[in-house]
Specification:
The protein is mainly alpha-helical and about 120 residues long. It contains 5 helices and 2 strands, in the order H-E-H-E-H-H-H.
Length: about 120
Amino acid sequence: MKDYELKKRELFVLQGGHCYNCDEELDNTCQIDHILPKKRASKTKSRNPRWIDEIFNLRLLCPRCHLQKRPVGFADWDIKHIDEALQKGSVSYADLSWIEDKKLRIHFQKTLKNFFKNT
């Protein structure tokens, strides 16, 4: 099984089979979305951080939400925070206080915990 399909299944379980944005029940048309888009990451000082395709930077969206998606306003400073958490090897809810959106902060916390368990 391809890495893409494994990540898609893991996200499906983590999200309870629902779209991250609208909470609609997902089917096989769901799509993986990069929270920090690859395009945006390539314009930062980090230049495509090694974690861009890791599970904590991904979420599943229904096709409608993926089409209507607005980019998340990450800055170079935010990328630095994620890099620091990865180097430290752990993350707490407080470490993610720079993420203003509570739902996104919880997503990062949950998926980073799983990431650290599996590395």
